[in-house]
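S1.2 Input.
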Amino acid sequence: MEYAYYPGCSLEATGKPYDVSLRLCFQRLGIELREIDDWNCCGATSYIAMNKLTAYALSARNLANAETMGMDICAPCSSCFTILSKVNRHCQWGEEHRNEINEVLGAAGLSYGGSIEVLHPLGILVGFYGIEKIVQSACRRLGGLRIAPYYGCQIVRPEGRFDDREDPQQLDNLFAALGAEVVPFSAKVRCCGGMLMTTFEEVALRLNRDILEEAVTNGAEVMVTTCPMCQMNLEAYQERINRVYGTHYHIPIVFFTQILGLALGYTSEELMLDKLVVEGKGLATRLTEVAV
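S1.3 Output.
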């Protein structure tokens, strides 16, 4: 298995633990990632707000470069996955849409034929590689670690092609198979507010408080997520939420590949669990070695 890897901007900055742990997990499982040469920002939301065609062409540049590699794209960041998937569907809907975008791409000597798919690493691991093979590759069990699986609002919407839109199960099934206790978590697809933390902080703090409260009330020791923005909002603002609401949240918010990496035999330091604001290094003490 081989994929064109699109890390996106966040995974080279605040989401670096996601990038590091994802690469390690895929390496251990024998899934090859080839980073797209000269990739650029996916465009996220600001470009689309200004000029839709420019935004689509900017994102399609990455699709075109991946197409020359002859590989589907692996896009870990939820926003990148959503934007790239949206533009890809737009290109695949019809020749008129594709020609519009290709006219812009032509200025850079590029074109996109719509022949590849944009995939999320969770979908690759569960849907293509398979949970059974992952369990066979694990050298540690998760020892009943109580996990709240947080998908966020983006990767399962709008169509639900990735997983069920209201009650996705891929994280649940993966970590249950690895020996964790997946707690009931109805907030698994609620929005964290995204960039509202920088524009309407009061709203964003309340949204994140509600998600944290659901996880803690249901006994979670750790929350796993697939999104750099969600991870930052839920982790970095816990102390501010505590001050505003008089709460006492102190729960690690980790990328799902960091917990998977522990099961696959990597150390907390290799997976950068010791670099989080709410340190997750102690989670490794809950693991048990798999009998050979």
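S1.4 Remarks. The first strand starts at residue 2 and ends at 5.
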